Task: inverse folding
């Protein structure tokens, strides 16, 4: 398991490193777990301020210990009050979380993402199938009950 997560983290770090624009400021990891990925993202970047939200108390405490600085909140990522800053330059999200809650919460979550986020990094682990990717695409980008993509030309 650890090897798989290390590889997964390496892919995310490499993708961030390949970005042409890496914004400075607040970085929010929604479901930060033990904080290892968030720690790797902010390492050697004094212009990035780590923020993590984690439902599991032990993991949240571990994240705070792993990174040694930043802001960590124990809570549900869909409780939008856990997003304590007005704006985040980067948000890390494992989108499977969006399949674990109600449509009403997803709509509010998506609205807050658009309003408070410059760059969204979607973390996909290797066990995701195309079925889930299409479902997640519709959750993030579809605007109606028919799950069809929004037409941005209107």
Result:
């Amino acid at each position: 398991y650890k090897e798989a997560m290390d590889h997964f983290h390496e892919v995310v770090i490499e993708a961030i490193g390949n970005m042409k624009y890496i914004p400075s400021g607040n970085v929010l990891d929604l479901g930060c777990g033990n904080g290892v990925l968030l720690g790797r993202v902010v390492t050697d970047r004094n212009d990035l301020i780590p923020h993590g939200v984690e439902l599991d108390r032990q993991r949240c405490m571990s994240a705070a210990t792993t990174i040694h600085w930043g802001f960590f909140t124990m809570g549900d990522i869909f409780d939008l009050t856990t997003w304590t800053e007005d704006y985040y330059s980067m948000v890390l999200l494992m989108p499977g979380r969006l399949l674990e809650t109600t449509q009403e919460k997803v709509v509010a979550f998506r609205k807050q993402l658009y309003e408070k986020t410059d760059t969204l990094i979607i973390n996909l682990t290797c066990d995701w199938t195309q079925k889930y990717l299409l479902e997640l695409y519709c959750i993030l980008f579809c605007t109606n009950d028919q799950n069809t993509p929004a037409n941005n030309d209107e």
